[in-house]
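Q: Give me a protein?
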Amino acid sequence: MKQRLVDSNVSFVEAVRSFKWSNSKGDGVNRSLVGSFEGRDMTVPTLSKVRGWTNKNWRQTHGLNTYEMGGGKFLFEFATRDTAEQVIAGDWVWCNTKVRLDWWTLLKNAFGV
């Protein structure tokens, strides 16, 4: 079953307004990372596998929320900016392939750039 990422009944403006991180403070945005996961054999992990991997590798991540974005990308919302900074500074490997981590920005990631 193909995952549906777009609802034609909801405009982009409505989606951005309702998005929980689009508030004026940007609280969740400044402590969230996007990770790209894809194994050498082009396998994309499930959300439960990524959550298990983060629990094993990112031990100090109490309060971590993980969301699947599609296309092998996952959003990680950390409890604090300091924890996110520690994680992004590390080198992480999934299925013998380096995991690419970037800071989440609403507009950049909304358009898949």
About this structure: The beta strands are 32-36, 65-70, 73-77, 93-94, 97-98, 100-103. DSSP finds four helices and six strands in the chain. The CA atoms of residues 39 and 97 lie 6 Å apart.
